[in-house]
Structure formats: structure tokens, C-alpha cells
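ok so I'm stuck.
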Amino acid sequence: MYLRTAVTHLTYQHQEVLGGEQWVNLEIALRAATINPAKQLGIDDIGEMLEVGGNADLVILKRNPREVDARNLDKL
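replied:
not stuck anymore, here's the structure
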């Protein structure tokens, strides 16, 4: 939902554009949901590699968010 809202500014139920001039592109929205929070927490340097005993948060998506219509980003 977060990515779809940031990129399209569509409201959830009414599908109206709210503050359309304040949209961001998908790359900025992805960074806002991934690396930027890690940097704020000071943990952006601990998740660069997956290895035994390492820490990781993973999300597995069925489709690449860069290859779907922005209105469907909440359905990934």
C-alpha cells in the first residue's frame, strides 16, 4: 500500500488522486521503504550479505515492482 500511495497518490477506497503534485517516483519510494529506514537505525551496513548466522529481513514478491502498473503496487 505504501508504495502505491507514494507513487500514485490514489486514495484507498475512492481511487481519487489526493495531492497528485506530491508524488515520488518508484525508485525514491523503494528507497524510502528499505535503505533509508535502515540508515536511520544505523543498521544499513549489516545486511549487505546473506550468510549463516547473519541477520536479514526478507520480503518475497511474486512480481518485480518495476514491471507492474503503479496502481497495482499494493497487490505485490
